[in-house]
Amino acid sequence: MFGSGLAKGLGITMRRLLAGPVTELYPYDHKVLTPASRTFLAMYVNEEGGPACKACNTCIVGCPDHVLRLEKDPDDNRKPLEFVVNSGRCTFCGLCVENCPYDALHFTPDYERATYDRGTLIYHLVHEGAHTGEGDEPK
After folding, report:
1. What global pTM score does this model have?
2. Res 134: pLDDT
């Protein structure tokens, strides 16, 4: 039938017009993200309060963007001294979290990390990214 495409398009337009606004008032209303969202990489802590990472390099080998850097303790080869993430180059693919055999890494719902300086996009997870608390237990 001639004009059925036009009628269908106008019907969709009218439904969207009458549905109401979908705008979010961001600074005042914070978005609730799904648990599967990948926004900020963090590291769990163990019972002693140290990093849960065992410095096995599995996450570093699996990272396609080469944004992770690990320095091991010279005295204890299974303890990280420094775990650095350059989130400015990260595509948040999640391969580092999936590859970790100790479930030391996870993503947090923290999405307010915008900055004007690239130097502030480098995070030291052994010191800054240790997460404890309710809902942050490893799987």
Report:
1. 0.71
2. 42
